[in-house]
Write a structure and sequence with these properties.
The structure holds two protein chains of two kinds.
Chain A (H helix, E strand, L loop, with lengths): L1 E5 L10 H15 L3 E6 L10 E4 L4 E5 L15 E8 L5 E7 H18 L4 E5 L1 H14 L3 E5 L3 H4 L7 H13 L2 E4 L2 H9 L8 E3 L17 H5 L3 E6 L8 H14 L3 E6 L5 H10 L6 E5 L3 H10 L2 E4 L9 H7 L4 E4 L4 H4 L4 E3 L4 H13 L1 H15 L4 H16 L5
Parallel strand pairs in A: 1-2, 1-7, 2-3, 7-8, 8-9, 9-10, 11-12, 11-14, 12-13, 14-15, 15-16
Antiparallel strand pairs in A: 4-5, 5-6
Helix pairs in contact in A: 1-15, 2-3, 3-5, 8-13
Chain B lengths: L1 E9 L30 H26 L5 E5 L1 H10 L1 H12 L3 E3 L14 H19 L5 E2 L8 H9 L4 E5 L2 H4 L7 E4 L6 E5 L1 H8 L14 H9 L7 E7 L13 H14 L3 E3 L2 H7 L2 E5 L15 H4 L2 H12 L1 H7 L2 H9 L3 H5 L21 H41 L12 H8 L6 H16 L1 H6 L1
């Protein structure tokens, strides 16, 4: 079986959940004997053994006016600068295009690739690749799976949904043979907001890599030495992520226990607003901004924290609590997240219920047994969430679609 | 001769409301949830009364009226009786009517449906006595056969019951301890010489309690006729078939639409249709049969799930932590001699609280295997521990007050012994003295002692001059 896959990002480029998911899924599909042709919009370095095609020789230089710290999900009017060629002196010619334009160009090139290549199924990841998937289907007549890692509703946290992205999503879902979502939570959005028939939508939870993590020297050693408790937010600072609710909960917590320090790690378009909120709430002593942390710095922070909070307003899956668990840190997560469906061993709260969020934070710090058990049993549970499980489910979908196609 | 000994266990806990950290020190009502959730105790009692207690008692009364040979047993937790009294008095009356026939025996139990025997025998004994008084008061009878929370059992519990005058005790008829032997005989607990143990026939009991409404079950739908024939099949290889189950099996665990009420209505008749088959109460069963052998249970045995042990209550760290924290308070709680504090502490001992914290099967995603009014075991633990923290505060506050009073009493004795003192008797606030007169922070108890010593010497001229 050969699959023509369209994606927008891929490791080792520094990126968010989408690239990680594409990598994990592709690796396990290859392992199971599925041939994967992976098409990316721009030439880049790639990890793994799939056959990669690049839709363009242009190079992506930089994403402007959109935050790349964690998840480079973009608004339709965000622009990207691309190298479209080189002048006679060998200097790059750089042009700006909107992301929507890019998605359309990708689709055009996808139709050319689909004419040349031989394959059985088309699989496209996230909205920037949906049009490419649809174009490939129109050219080849092969069945199409659209894989939803996020929707325009998540990014907008329910308000001011980007109409151009929504339109692409809705029209593409209508064209797809199957729509895969990463959680029941996202399935509900796709069914209720995009009006996709429920029987067309399948949930395939993301996997995660249970790696042995090295114990790193603690960060914030001085605070820890003073016996402070550390509560971490790690992620983009945007309306979707609910950091404002986190700060309100922090106020409630500090009213009861001033020994708790809140660390906000990340950057984003809401950063200034959050800094102002912290100041207005009189929390400058208890809330610290760490900037966007990556790799070892991030892992050290995970290990130093007593508790991680993922206050998302709308989170299709949410890898951060699982990463924190790997480093031995338990989590409070919102019920408006996919990960809350698969991780039993976390505290769960509605994003708007600031009082309960504060109660859970305080309780978790107050009763160390509960934190320890969530880590021990949560890590055990994580072993069952492999990409292999996800890949097997995807393969079943491929096969079920092939039944309807004459070779 | 084959007799059937049914016992239905009636229990409702006081569920702890969503008690938050912020409530500690501010709210002493742990059980008064008034939301539309299953944490609202009144709401649950009303719901279960309509689904189970009222219709089932009506049927049971009709059966007793119709069949003079029909006998059975009931066991009640005190927490259920208290809630009937408060929220559904007619349910309590209907139970009293059943017992008044003289053919319904009430079993001994712990008042608070607790696992106290395994943590504190003195507390266990107090709860059993309290239960006995309550049963006497409501039903005018004294239980003679004992059953423990969740049918938990161990050799030393049987011994305790024997030493305290019970003629029988109930336990799970578990293969591990029975071996090739049948549960359908009366046995002697290991280490005992008088008391007899009645063993639950778990196959026949669970056919009703767990499998009755299961459409996947090969014997679904089960008719009373078929079921009676399974009982009759034991003629010749047994003396008593002991059917032990939750009372709420009728109408609450098995809903009306499974046909459970129709089944119950005709079951006694079907059973007694066979000559030589009748019903007995637990005492009658104990007195009718000699022991067939010894039942030796060195480790805790319960009627719960496939493990038949306490792991559903004490299997994980948060459960063990919560239960240990509860029983650790015993000495101080009893010292307060305050009824409301002791009663709240006992309500928190009810085994259900620990059951809600169970994570045994949650890794398989089978969260529904355990019924819980909480959204997760952790939420249950947090609400419980916060309430317990408040109780701890109340206990230490009460003891501190008492200590203060005692010292005041002592001091007034000193005052009377020193009639020449002309200092007016003033009682400074304890906080004042602790902060002002003891610069080095010590443990609170030590603190208080020192400050009171200071107060004493400052007030008594004789001592003051000698310092």
């Amino acid at each position: 079986m050969r699959v023509l896959t369209f994606g927008w990002e891929f490791p080792p480029q520094k990126n968010g959940g989408l690239g990680v998911a594409c990598f994990g899924l592709t690796r396990e599909l290859l392992h199971n004997g599925v041939e994967v042709i992976f098409v990316l919009p721009k030439n880049q370095e790639t990890a793994g053994d799939a056959r990669f095609l690049f839709a363009d020789d242009e190079r992506l230089v930089k994403v402007l006016r959109a935050d790349v710290s964690l998840k480079p999900y973009l608004q339709s009017d965000s622009t990207v600068d691309v190298i479209v060629g080189y002048d006679s002196q060998g200097r790059p010619i750089i042009r700006s295009r909107t992301i929507i334009e890019e998605a359309h160009r990708f689709a055009h090139q996808a139709s050319l690739i689909a004419q040349k290549e031989e394959f059985d199924v088309i699989h496209a990841h996230d909205w920037t690749s949906y049009l490419a998937g649809v174009a490939a289907k129109i050219v080849s007549g092969k069945p199409l799976i659209l894989h939803v890692h996020a929707t325009s509703f998540d990014q907008a946290a329910g308000n001011d949904v980007d109409p151009s992205i929504f339109k692409i999503e809705q029209e593409s879902f209508a064209m797809a043979d199957k729509v895969v979502t990463v959680s029941e939570y996202t399935k509900n959005i796709v069914v209720n907001k995009h009006h996709t028939p429920a029987e067309k939508v399948e949930v395939v939870y993301n996997g995660c890599e249970m790696e042995e993590t090295a114990t790193l020297p603690p960060t914030l050693a001085e605070l820890k030495r003073q016996g402070k408790k550390i509560v971490l937010y790690h992620g983009r600072i945007s309306i979707q992520k609910g950091v404002d609710h986190f700060v309100r909960a922090a106020r409630r917590v500090v009213d009861v226990d001033s020994n708790v320090i809140f660390i906000i790690s990340g950057s984003g378009d809401m950063l200034t607003q959050i800094i102002e909120q912290v100041g207005a709430a009189g929390l400058s002593d208890n809330v610290k901004f760490a900037g966007a942390l990556w790799d070892e710095e991030r892992d050290r922070m995970y290990q130093s924290a007593d508790l991680m909070v993922m206050p998302s307003v709308s989170e299709p899956f949410g890898l951060v609590p699982l990463e924190a668990l790997q480093h031995g840190t338990p989590s409070v997560v919102t019920k408006q997240s996919g990960v809350s469906e698969v991780l039993t061993h976390a505290l769960k709260v509605d994003f708007w219920d600031v009082d309960e969020m504060a109660n859970q934070i305080l309780s978790c710090l107050r009763y160390p047994v509960v934190a320890q058990q969530m880590v021990n049993e949560g890590r055990e549970q994580m072993r069952g969430m492999s990409w292999q499980v996800a890949a097997r489910k995807i393969q079943c979908l491929y096969r079920s679609l092939l039944q309807y196609v004459t070779p | 001769m084959l007799t059937v000994c049914p016992y239905f266990h009636v229990h409702q806990p006081y569920r702890v409301k969503k008690y938050r950290v912020f409530d500690i020190g501010n709210d002493t009502e742990y059980f008064n949830d008034s939301s539309e959730t299953d944490l609202n105790n009144r709401r649950i009692i009303e719901k279960v009364a309509n689904k189970s207690y009222r219709p089932t008692n009506k049927i049971l009364k009709e059966l007793l009226d119709k069949h003079p040979e029909f006998h059975f047993n009931l066991s009640f937790s005190g927490t259920a009786l208290d809630q009937f009294e408060a929220y559904a008095p007619d349910v309590l009356e209907s139970f009293q009517e059943l017992v008044a026939t003289g053919r319904v025996e009430i079993l001994a139990d712990t008042y608070h449906h607790s696992l106290a025997f395994f943590y504190s025998v003195p507390e266990f004994k107090r709860q059993v006595k309290k239960h006995e008084r309550r049963i006497k008061q409501l039903f005018g009878v004294k239980p003679r056969v004992f059953r423990n929370t969740e049918l938990s059992y161990r050799n030393d519990l049987a011994k305790w019951c024997e030493d305290n005058g019970y003629i029988g005790i109930m336990a799970e008829g578990w293969d591990k301890y029975l071996g090739w032997r049948s549960p359908n005989y009366v046995y002697r607990p290991a280490g005992c010489s008088k008391i007899k143990v009645l063993l639950k026939n778990y196959k026949l009991s669970d056919d009703i309690a767990f499998r009755f409404g299961n459409k996947e079950w090969v014997d679904y739908p089960l008719s009373a006729d078929t079921y009676a024939s399974w009982i009759h099949a034991h003629h010749g290889d047994g003396e008593t078939v002991n059917l032990f189950m939750d009372y709420e099996s009728f109408g609450e665990h098995q809903w009306e639409d499974t046909g459970i009420f129709e089944f119950l209505k005709v079951l006694p008749e079907m059973v007694m249709r066979h000559p030589d088959t009748s019903f007995k109460t637990a005492s009658q069963t104990v007195e009718s049969y000699d022991v067939a052998g010894e039942y030796d249970v060195p480790d805790v045995l319960t009627w719960a799930d496939t493990d038949r042990d306490l792991t559903a209550w004490t299997g994980n760290d948060i459960q063990r932590d919560a239960i240990a924290a509860t029983y650790k308070m015993e000495k101080d709680v009893m010292k307060t001699r305050k009824r409301d504090i002791i009663e709240n502490w006992r309500k928190l001992q009810t085994s259900d609280h620990f059951y809600y914290m169970c994570t045994k099967w949650s890794n398989d995603g089978d969260v529904h295997a355990y019924f819980s009014p909480y959204q997760s075991p952790y939420e249950a633990y947090i609400a419980f521990m916060n309430a317990l923290s408040d109780l701890q505060l109340r206990v230490s506050h009460c003891l501190a007050q008492r200590e203060q009073q005692e010292l005041e009493n002592q001091q007034s004795e000193v005052d009377t012994e020193e009639p020449q003192t002309d200092h007016p008797k003033v009682t400074p606030a304890p906080e004042e003295t602790t902060t002002q007169k003891t610069p080095e922070p010590k443990s609170p108890a030590e603190d208080r002692k020192i400050s009171w010593w200071n107060k004493l010497i400052n007030k008594t001229p004789f001592f003051k001059s000698s310092v």
